[in-house]
């Protein structure tokens, strides 16, 4: 029998698996999957197993690579370089280990999910381009504030994964839309109609917030205010004015502070990555808006879907109900699609 110590990329705590020495790697995958590790994948075959030379477990349970501490909650496979070797599912463990070689203190198997690889690749690429001069110690680790990262810093990375696509809509009861239209007109009477050139950030927020509130109410969602987001493996952190929460769905909401929608894009995309990392979420939604321009984001492991929408001020200088309805129904679909 082999007594193997294993560790999962992104989890960090080594665990033991006992298995026959003549078993296959596929059988080891099944054993690993059965350890109730809350893997992001739903089937054992989606796990990838690696032998990594020089990987050991310290006396305090820390993971060491050639004697250097490795934070496995933030590590990626690329960090092990040429020391890692993939163990094909059809191969036998006797090819990789024998009883004499399986020494105490050694970590024998590194586990990764196929689904995680897209995350790890993108996070590694982002970490490489985050401004080093702006990376500060945040809760003991190097982390860049989202607000300090410009669109030019990260555009090349995000452009590689972004696909433009029309987003679905889900109807909202007419009574709720009528109430929203009345509320927006009341705000326009109090603050003056929204203007593409002169309306400031605070004024725009008074128009944006009720749209989110009415949709959240229709979907049975909660709006969380002043939410902190912090990645573990993607090294960014920040605070969001709003996060919409409905079951497993998270929507990160960003309003540009200076009218720069490209900067808002950087903010919302990084926020989505941080939430996906911290919560092991396969899908995170995001919205960047100044009320008249809307960018919708669906962040997935392998790619990022985006859609744009504009709200044109009507002749009466109010927000047209049909334009607001398109926006509201898009947000409603985001909240409901994963919670049916």
UniProtKB/TrEMBL annotation:
<dbReference type="Pfam" id="PF20147">
    <property type="entry name" value="Crinkler"/>
</dbReference>
<dbReference type="GO" id="GO:0005576">
    <property type="term" value="C:extracellular region"/>
</dbReference>
<protein>
    <recommendedName>
        <fullName>Crinkler effector protein N-terminal domain-containing protein</fullName>
    </recommendedName>
</protein>
<dbReference type="InterPro" id="IPR045379">
    <property type="entry name" value="Crinkler_N"/>
</dbReference>
<dbReference type="GO" id="GO:0043657">
    <property type="term" value="C:host cell"/>
</dbReference>
<keyword id="KW-0964">Secreted</keyword>
<feature type="domain" description="Crinkler effector protein N-terminal">
    <location>
        <begin position="2"/>
        <end position="111"/>
    </location>
</feature>
